[in-house]
Structures are given as C-alpha cells and as structure tokens.
Amino acid sequence: MSQLEEVHGIVLSVRKHRERDFLVKLFTREYGKLMFFVRGTKNPNNKLKPAIQPFTQATYIADIRDTGLSFLRDSKLVSPFSAIQQDIFKNAYGTYVLQLADAALEDRQMDPGLFAQLVLGLEAIDEGLDAEVIMNIFEMRFLRYFGVMPELRGCVICGVTEGAFDYSSLHHGLLCPKHYYEDERRYHASPKAIHFIRLFSVISFDKINSISVKDETKKEIRAVIDQLYDELVGIRLKSRKFIDSMKEWENLMKPQEDATD
C-alpha cells in the first residue's frame, strides 16, 4: 500500500543513484527518517532539484510506502539554510549535526519534537549563533536516542541537584563532592564543563541566545563529551574529525585576519 501526501522534511543526505536519479534521506515530522527515490533530477527543469539539496527543508509531496523506498513527486515551501550551504565552517557543524541525527535515529521513528528542535538548531547556525555550542547541545540530546543518557539531574548517591559535580562512569551519572570517594576514577572534569553539559541536555533552542561560553570552557566541554561518546556510544564520525582539523585552520587564519584590520 502507498499513499500520496504532504510531509515536512529536512534533507539528511543525498546520494547519486545510477546516471540520472538520486536517493534522498529525509527526516520528516510525520514519519521520522525515510529514504526516498527521486527520478531524473539532472534535468535542469526538474522542480524537485532545489528541494533535495543538502541543508534544505521543505514540504514534500510524497508517495509513502509501508516498506522499502518511498518516492518524492513534488515540493513546495522550499527553504534552504543558505548560510550553512555557503560557509565552510557553518557547513561543517551542520553536517555533523545531521550525520549524528542519522546515526542516532531508527528509520520511521517519528519524533515531531526533535524535528522542531533540528529546524531551530539549523536556523540558529544559519543565523550566526555559536555553532560549537549548538553542536554540543545536539550531542548531549542524542545520547538519549542512542539509549545511553546518563543521570545528569543530580548526584546519583544522595540526589542533591545544586552545587559542583563530577561524572562517574561507574555510576553512570553525577557525583557531588561529598561522594567523590565513591569513584576514584571519576572524570575529574571541570565543574564549569559539567554545569554546561547538564544545561545542554535540557535547554531548548529558543533559549540559546542567552548562552555565552568562553573558549577555555569550550575545550573542557569538548573533552567531557568526547569521553562520554567514546565510552557510551563508540562512534566517531568523519565530520567530527573534520571539525577538529578545521579548528587548526581557524587558528592559522586568525593572525592573517588581524593583520588586515
């Protein structure tokens, strides 16, 4: 059985199929992640071509199949994230966020709330908000979808929710200073980094304008999230490695930019 209907979607990936066709993976509000077959988009007059570009959201007229590939027939209200498409740094962060979403989500796992947050997050990157912070928020958010979200609400021993904390792999959550002795091999992380990963795990993207993070704290946050992903998730996407190398370019470019001011 198939049905022709409108779905709201974000392009996760596009892959060439044979000579003229494409396989397009969308994260849709109505059905979750689906793979679509798109025929003949090399034709310059094909109306679907702008709607299947990376970093695009649109309303798609789709032939939804219960199993296997579905088909895109038309589109409307096409809205590209133009700055992400054109800026290599924004593109790198956006690519990683969408690849992480692809890795974390099962096919046909409907989640309108996450769809809305992805749209808001990509809009924030597109508008020039701190892309590294937005990436960190998604990394913390997706731990739940990988099925490994640790206890971050408070100390796993006594339940206290305020003050300094450290992360314990042994207890899969936070420890307050009174209970640090429960795990001598705890992360010994910066209290600021732990504060922000707790915040990132619950904050909505309509509130991120108020977040300001110093570069040194960002490095500490990065170290904690990397430990969590290495230990709990076990994946390291190529797009993340690209961001790491990209930061080296930024450091090399800064003196040149300063010299021209």
Notable features of this structure?
5-stranded mixed β-barrel, elongated, de novo design (two linked rop proteins), OB fold (Dihydrolipoamide Acetyltransferase, E2P), 261 residues
Summary?
The protein is an alpha+beta fold and 261 residues long. The chain has helices at residues 82-86, 88-104, 112-126, 131-145, 191-200, 215-233, 238-260; strands at 2-17, 21-28, 32-38, 56-65, 70-80, 151-155, 166-168, 173-175. The protein folds into two domains: 2-80, OB fold (Dihydrolipoamide Acetyltransferase, E2P), CATH 2.40.50; 84-250, de novo design (two linked rop proteins) (Up-down Bundle), CATH 1.20.1440.120.
Name of the CATH first level of the largest domain = Mainly Alpha
Number of strands: 8
Q: What is the CATH architecture descriptor of the largest domain?
A: Up-down Bundle
**Helix share, percent:** 25-40%
| N- to C-terminal distance | 63 Å
Beta-strand portion reads 15-25%
Average pLDDT number: 91
Give a quick account of the main beta sheet: strands, pairing sense, barrel closure: 5 strands, mixed, barrel
- Rounded to the nearest angstrom, the radius of gyration is 21 Å
What shape does the CA trace take? Answer: elongated
The total number of structural domains is: 2
Protein name: DNA repair protein RecO
InterPro entries: ARFGAP/RecO, DNA_rep/recomb_RecO_N, NA-bd_OB-fold, RecO, RecO_C
Pfam families: RecO_C, RecO_N
Domain DNA replication/recombination mediator RecO N-terminal: 5-81
